Amino acid sequence: MNCQTFKENLNKYLDGELEKRNVGPFKFHLSSCALCGLLLEKEQKFEATLRHHMVKESAPYALRESVVNCLEGKKRFAFLQNISWLMHGWRPVAVTMITLVLVFSVFLQNTIAFPLFEESITRHVQCLAGAYPIEISSEDIKEVSKWFVGKLDFAVKIPDLTRHGIKLKGARLCHLKDKKVALIYYDKDGHRISVFVLDSQGLKVPRSKKIKHTQQTLFVNNDKGYQSILCLDQRLEGVGCIFVSDLPEEELIDLIIS
Fold first, then answer.
1. Mean pLDDT over residues 175-195, rounded?
2. Chain-centre distance for alpha carbon 62
3. Chosen domain end from 111, 137, 172
4. Structural domain span for residue 136
5. Which has the least CB within 10 A, 16, 124, 178, 230?
């Protein structure tokens, strides 16, 4: 085996795909050629570095489902059944493309704002249509708070709006995109108020009107006739509340900050 043949079989050897009859000549050449030995060492270091620095992110449920569905359906496409050419002649290109995709994905995850306003209004409308029924029906704040214990990774503090004549109706677990949240139901003179309590640590808020009030910061958004207001309270230590209702903006803000 000469140096050119060694280089052509190097990727197969690294992937454990080199035919048995070629392993002997490959290793013999390796023992007698210092340059090819350095090439092998360089490739092994590159793969080790790539594995060590590869960012591992927990994929959202929807993304995992999409990937599984794609993998299950791959048999429908005969031309995808053999992609060994990607790992041999096109190995450097494939590694580069995969690395770029991973870096780009992490970049997007760290820069794109969470669509909390759009998601909260959508869930609120679905609740009005009966899509998310109450799981615990109670007007007692302590009882509802106790129901959430152990169901979420953060402590759920139920906003006390009863002093404004607003009735607590109950609560349930819900999702805003890939975030698991607590959903609290209130009623004010026939107007439904949905309050989503979520872990706000690292949350990137979409562009919106910002209002500061003592220890509270409000982010206000209006869409489809509904108000969606995120309240971040310094006293709640990383837990935020999103208030959604068809009440006038000023009235809903007064309920939150008073």
1. 94
2. 9
3. 111
4. 116-257
5. 16
